[in-house]
Amino acid sequence: MKITKVNTYLVRPRWCFVEIQTDEGFTGWGEPVIEGKAQTVQSCVEEMTEYLLGKDPMRIEDLWSTLYRAGFYRGGPVLMSAIAGIDQALWDIKGKFYGAPVYELMGGTCRDKMRVYSWIGGDRPSDVARDALEKKAKGFSAIKMNATEELQMVDSYEKIDEVLERVAAIREAAGKHFGIAVDFHGRVHKPMAKILAKKLEEFDLMFIEEPVLCDNMESFRDVARACNIPIATGERLFSRWDFKRLLQGGYVDIIQPDLSHAGGITEVKKIAAMAEAYDVALAPHCPLGPIALTSCLQVDATSYNAFIQEQSIGIHYNTGASVLDYITNPEDFTFTDGFVELPKLPGIGVAVNKELVERENKTPHQWKNPVWRHEDGSIAEW
């Protein structure tokens, strides 16, 4: 079998899809994207096409190594996201060739279904208690929310109190054992992160996410010493070498590699195994589309340390189109009692609505994240 064509598509709300075709009629789909830089990643995929045409798509490890190692410069969000989408598409082809879900080709499952959580609130969260109760009524056992609006490096306790009031309202409304994850979103710097993490202890959180950016990886030590809440991070790390440094630090409890950013199924499966050796849990990052989600579920199915999966159905970013719009098998992504069944179709598990993808690609999106500023006019972390 040989790869004959590589097509890329920009689709709303903010995603990029790649389609790899072969001379034997098998087609694979992937989702290579950096949110806000979708066109850049698209160009990177197109630039890599010459390494793929005429090659055997079944040799995934060799093609992955070629894309990663044959270039003098490697790593980083753009290159690794391009590789991620290509890798997903190659696994999709391989699974379809053998007539089996990808997880069957990786040793089979270690679980029957996967726990999921749902987002509530938005960039500037409000009415979160009501939203949490709505999700609980739909069967979810856990939610995640953004913690804060913009925070300066040293900011007011008024903003800290606002966070505590929102989390307290969720805990009171949803009950003692409902899962609450609070995403600091990299908006909080170490001086305030230590304070906020310590004060959130009373609410028995499932985890806090990105209390500081991985740029300041050494600061996880200070946050971990300030509180007894599990710390999650990793969506802005892109390879096993990035995660090696994080795991060696010893202060993070949950890693969140993104299947569309961190080299795809091939790489994240290796990252997950590394984390298991450090007794660290896995909760893949996925505020993205259906191909990214089902790729996550393939890795979750085979990773003992996977404990919960993010998904973006209903997330505030999704305007104009949503996750299930782009597939013709939405029934395979029904959430029941806070769980989703493992993918059923051969390959990565989605039947893509190519007609809609092609129609969306005629008017490519140009999504960018907001640019925030503090009251003094300086740039704020979003």
From TrEMBL:
- Annotated membrane-spanning segments are none
Q: Which UniProt keywords apply?
A: Lyase, Magnesium, Metal-binding
Listed SUPFAM superfamilies: Enolase C-terminal domain-like, Enolase N-terminal domain-like
**Residue span, Mandelate racemase/muconate lactonizing enzyme C-terminal domain:** 125-230
GO biological process entries: amino acid catabolic process; D-galactonate catabolic process
- Which EC numbers does the record give? 4.2.1.6
Q: Which InterPro entries match?
A: DgoD-like, Enolase-like_C_sf, Enolase-like_N, Enolase_C-like, Galactonate_deHydtase, Mandel_Rmase/mucon_lact_enz_CS, Mandelate_racemase_C, Mandelate_racemase_N_dom
Q: What is this protein called?
A: Galactonate dehydratase
* Species this chain originates from: Massiliimalia timonensis
